[in-house]
Amino acid sequence: MKNVRHLLLLLSVIFLSCSNPKNKAKDFVAYYNKSVSPQFLDAFTRINEQAVGKTYAELSPLKLDSLPEIRIVFVAKLAFTDPDIDLYQQYIPTAFTTFIAADKRAKSLLEDGVKFKVIYSSRNERQVSELLIDKAKMAELLKEKAGKNLAVGKGLRNANLRPEVKQLLITLNNTLPIVIDQDLQTTITKIDVNSLNELVYTIEVGDEMKTVLKGANAKAAMKEEVLSNPKLGTFYHQMRNIGLANIKYVYTDKAGNKLNELLITQEDF
After folding, report:
1. Which end of the chain, N or C, is surrounded by fewer C-beta atoms within 10 Å?
2. pLDDT value, residue 42
3. Residues 6+ apart with CB under 8 A from 251
4. Cα separation values, 13 from 17, 18, 27, 28, Å
């Protein structure tokens, strides 16, 4: 009987050691860096290869008797001053929230009181944005996400989208609106795919741009401006890789009235 008790005690110690939040957090960091990180890099490359150059997990320094905190760092290939980095500073943390919701290990850690600090930084690891997620914050984000997903899903025009493209659109629209230029009051208000499988950006403009967009030479000037972005060609081909045809920009005034539109096709490259 004494030997049985000793065995049960030993087993209980081993079990408690394995299920200790600190040990589970260490295991998660190893799991993330080995298995999850490559999946994230592949997914972000499909959107824009400049958005994330690497991602890794690490444990924050522990205070005595405190629960661990896991830092999830996404490092862009973009400089801190690159205007494109603002387009991803909300999207990247949102994408990780989607991962936590589907990953048993991450959800178990939240139940144990472990926190995730999601950091998006420029290529020299200068921080751009940060999101701290605990159990309560996760519940709040999921509730908010469910409402947005329903609204965005209903608003998508193309009912025949591939599931991965639909999910991408929902995730991207959850980060909107995105201000492109504060002075010109240009803002991306919606991203969709139409029946021709074209990626459609709806861009709201202020009064100054409203006049310009109605001019006789507006379309030619718009195309010249859009094509001057050296990253557009790479982005266009990445969109083709997930089954989308062209890129369309639809410009509206603040009341939602269409002012002009621009179509970018393979011939433009």
Report:
1. N
2. 76
3. 203, 204, 205, 209, 213, 222, 258, 259, 260, 261, 262
4. 6, 9, 18, 21
17-144 and 176-268: identical CATH topology: yes
pLDDT higher than 70, residue 15: no
Q: Which of 259, 170, 179, 269 is nearest to 222 (CA)?
A: 259
Backbone angles phi, psi at 201, to 5 degrees: -100, 125
Structure tokens at 219: 């379309």
Q: Which CATH class is domain 17-144?
A: alpha beta
**Residue 127 has which token pair?**
């921080």
Which tokens hold the place of 139?
């519940």
Q: Where are the domains of the chain?
A: 17-144, 176-268
Question: Which fold would CATH assign to domain 176-268?
Answer: GMP Synthetase; Chain A, domain 3 (3.30.300)
Which stretch of DSSP H or E encloses residue 260?
strand 258-264
Strand order in the sheet with 127-133: 54-59, 69-75, 115-121, 127-133
Helix H or strand E encompassing 192: strand 186-193
* Cβ atoms within 10 Å of 183's Cβ, excluding its own: 7
Give DSSP secondary structure letters for 106-146. Answer: HHHHHHTT-EEEEEEE-TT--EEEEEEE-HHHHHHHHHHHH
